[in-house]
Amino acid sequence: MIEKEVWNEYWELMPEEEMKKIQWLKLKRILIFAYTSSAFYHKKFNEAGIHPDDIKSFADFSRKVPVTTKAELRSMQAEGYPLGSNMTVSRTEIVWITASTGTTGKPTYTCCTKKDWEMWMECAKRMFWLGGLRPEDTHIHALGLSNWISGISFATAAREIGATVVPVGVPTPVDRMLMLIRDLKPTSIVCTPSYAEHLANKCQELLDLKPSELGLRKFFCGGEPGASIPSFRRKMENIWQCDMRDLMGSPEMICGDLIECHLKNGFHIVNREFCYNEFCDPITKMPIEMKDGAEGTRIYTALDKEAGPLIRFDVQDQCQIMVAPCECGYPGIRFNVTGRYDDMLKIKGVKIWPSTIKDIISSFAPKLTGQFKIILQEKPELFTVTGPVKLKVEHADGLTDNDVKNIKKELVNSIRRSCLWAPENVIMSPPGSIPPAEFKAKYIEIDAN
Amino acid sequence: MIEKEVWNEYWELMPEEEMKKIQWLKLKRILIFAYTSSAFYHKKFNEAGIHPDDIKSFADFSRKVPVTTKAELRSMQAEGYPLGSNMTVSRTEIVWITASTGTTGKPTYTCCTKKDWEMWMECAKRMFWLGGLRPEDTHIHALGLSNWISGISFATAAREIGATVVPVGVPTPVDRMLMLIRDLKPTSIVCTPSYAEHLANKCQELLDLKPSELGLRKFFCGGEPGASIPSFRRKMENIWQCDMRDLMGSPEMICGDLIECHLKNGFHIVNREFCYNEFCDPITKMPIEMKDGAEGTRIYTALDKEAGPLIRFDVQDQCQIMVAPCECGYPGIRFNVTGRYDDMLKIKGVKIWPSTIKDIISSFAPKLTGQFKIILQEKPELFTVTGPVKLKVEHADGLTDNDVKNIKKELVNSIRRSCLWAPENVIMSPPGSIPPAEFKAKYIEIDAN
User: Fold this and answer.
1) Chain A interface, mutation test: which of B117, B164, B179, most A Cβ atoms within 10 Å?
2) Chain B contact for A162, CB < 8 A?
3) What distance in Å separates residue A244's CA from the closest CA in chain B?
């Protein structure tokens, strides 16, 4: 590496072997903390018949300690806000509470102490730095600012790196966002991939400028799949003349901690000493064999979290592992997220991920706009879809009826080839009929009719 | 004072005489900085025929240095974003840019360097602490988070004090806001006064709870007049069983710096060593005689600002001075803001402030809801209103036609007594017909018909 390529050279560049020793010590410490300070974990460990002293190796840990699920977080929090029986610090030690954005039902809360906040900032700074953000950038924050973890924290971390932060947030009227971009000439932006696309479309429409003329060269995209889907990324990088990096966070642990390096070949984990990751079978929760291409769910343990520790939290992301060292020199394994086990659909026994469908549709650009909905008759139970599946797909402007008919046929064939399944009914929908998502795009719609 | 009543005892409690010496030294320094680093001020001073060395006393400063107006900020910024000819630092030294919320025309930008940010935080922490926020509070942020100065900065300052911050922001659906309040049991909130009223109304409607049952005991209100209007404050403190404090910021200087102590008798200035305040005649801009009850516009000079210094910035707030020492022991003068000179209306030669009308209407509670609009035929020029003035006032539920007629008569009389003027036409409007403002309430509407 030529210049300072990472934020914190000592910890980030530590060889995996040495890092494992740190992780092991911290793992023992957090198990003791959870068992002795969290009513939830004290009970959970007792019920599983385990004691921190029983855990003598990483293998012991994976074999003996049960996973923690999102459903458990929700029901434990219902026992008493904000952390229910996983309340491990006094209320006055908590300095920040964020709530998930879920609009239905109860939000889940994530709390942090002063030390948790510092850890969070450290992770976010490493993430942005590895992603290429530098003090000389003017950086526009175009994710939501309310509540959720990628809001104020991301804007603060970018400021602490020394970049010039413009904390706009969404929702903000898109004409105002574009005016600010035109005026302030930011070089960098963090937003969802669908917002990157929305901005590009509106730029042409409202400013009569090519997106590339705005000078935004660094796109940090997260919050939904997209930035690492090759066809989508190619399209955006071409339109904006930019470098697009996918990033992800671990909301329940409270940080943004995964980002692509300039080689864009999987997520690097920037916070190895704060987070122990296992990649496991989605059903048995036992570690899979670590080899290139292996697939499993990510299960993580927050090694330093004070307010509400999480032990073996099952993220339900479908990950594909790369163990071969990255040519960029950053240590540790990498992985791609290819779907979510809890978003996964089992249709007639076949596993289908909406992100795969998105990828296929994107490859039809510019004939298809990229907007689509998978319409089910009822909410899937244990991933399993009953009843016929409709796919509503938006086509571009200026096509003849015949063009549309042909694209539809090609699309169905393409889905069938990739997924070994195709929707019963594909509805080709005119441009503008499926509203572009400014937030986390939801690809599945339930419609009983 | 018994406990630590202020955040920074040394600077905040410094006797006025000693503080004046600090201010004088810093004033000399900032004059040199502005003259030697800002093209805008270099030119402005030259045109006024002054040189920093000419300023040998506070009196010289007031007499010789011209004021800076908001219009100047706007036009200088148009010369080149973000700070135009008042750009005093290199772009890479700027770490934060906020834009005013103005929806029409160009926003004005405020920038800060790392040091400016630290000053901003120091001011906001002093403000919240003097207002009674403590580490044991859970504090909900219910002002906007996007861009404007009272957003992320206020949430960050509350966190740095050690309070448990819930950064929700507005706009957020009010049912979600109430759910978070019910779940997390905050003891403190920062919001606009109109939002405090809106929340109270919705609390009864959506949760079937009295507002006081929610346990919010500290209301920090700013962003619009209201919290220090006696009748409004009495009503809110009674409904919520709370302690309501008015606060204000100096956006162009970048900080929140004015707040009431527990005696609630005018704003204390918490940042005397960062900001030199003059109270001047609104037309001549020369200092008024400092005695209790004197009225004038506030003109301030940011003594430490690195990115875009402001010398004699005319705030256009109509202030009423209190020079008698406050019984709380906090040093320095206090003042009330009784209107804005740029909001002021001259109707048939009489000066009328919408806030005075608001105050009168509030005194009719519960018969009037407090919602109202002043409707003009055209935008005033130099404060002067041409054509008849309509007043639209919302009355409460359950009144007979006769009640409404009588209230209208009383209201007109009351306005005439206080203002020596009354609107040509008062329209009594049914409850719910004037939407409650979730943001900065706008009291004036232009309607040519």
Assistant:
1) B164
2) yes
3) 22
Q: Give the mutation candidate from B94, B147, B176, B214 for the A interface (greatest A CB count, under 10 A).
A: B147
Q: What range defines the domain where residue B295 resides?
A: 1-339
- List pLDDT tens digits, range A53-93: 999 999 999 999 999 998 898 888 888 888 999 999 999 99
Query: pLDDT-based confidence at A418, cuts 50/70/90?
Result: confident
A255, A249 Cβ separation under 8 angstroms: yes
pLDDT digits (tens, 9 = 90+) for B249-277: 887 887 778 999 999 999 999 999 999 99
Per-residue confidence (pLDDT) for residue B439, from 0 to 100: 45
Q: Which helix (H) or strand (E) holds A429?
A: strand A425-429
Pair (A441, A332) in one structural domain: no
The domain tally of chain A equals: 2
Which ipTM did the prediction report? 0.80
Q: For residue A399, give the CATH number of its domain.
A: 3.30.300.30
- Would you place residue B103 in the very low, low, confident or very high pLDDT band (cuts 50, 70, 90)? very low
Using a 10 angstrom Cβ sphere, with 0-12 exposed, 13-18 middle and 19 or more buried, the burial of residue B123 is buried
- Which of B315, B339, B363 marks a domain boundary? B339
| Residue A180 contacts residue A223 (beta carbons within 8 Å) | no
pLDDT over 50 (residue A119): yes
User: Are A136 and B92 inside 8 Å of each other by CB?
Assistant: yes
Task: Determine the average pLDDT of the residues in A24-28.
Answer: 98
| Confidence at residue B437, expressed as pLDDT on a 0 to 100 scale | 57
Q: How many CB atoms lie within 10 A of CB A386?
A: 12
Shared domain check, A122 and A267: yes
pLDDT of B383 > 80? The answer is: no
pLDDT at position A104, please?
A: 45
Q: How far apart are CA B230 and CA A395, in angstroms?
A: 60
A-to-B residue pairs, Cβ atoms closer than 8 angstroms: 118
d(CA A63, CA A414): 41
Task: Check whether residue B146 and residue B193 sit in a common domain.
Answer: yes
B81 touching chain A per CB within 8 A: yes
Q: List all residues 6 or more positions away from A391 whose beta carbon is below 8 Å from its beta carbon.
A: A357, A372, A373, A374, A375, A415, A423, A425, A426, A427
Chain B interface includes A329 (CB < 8 A): no
- State whether A425 and A332 are in the same domain: no
Give the pLDDT score at B318: 87
Closest-CA residue in chain B for A163? B95
For chain A, say whether B99 makes contact (Cβ under 8 Å). yes
- CB of B145 within 8 Å of a chain A CB? The answer is yes
Please tell me whether residue B130 adopts helix, strand or coil conformation: helix
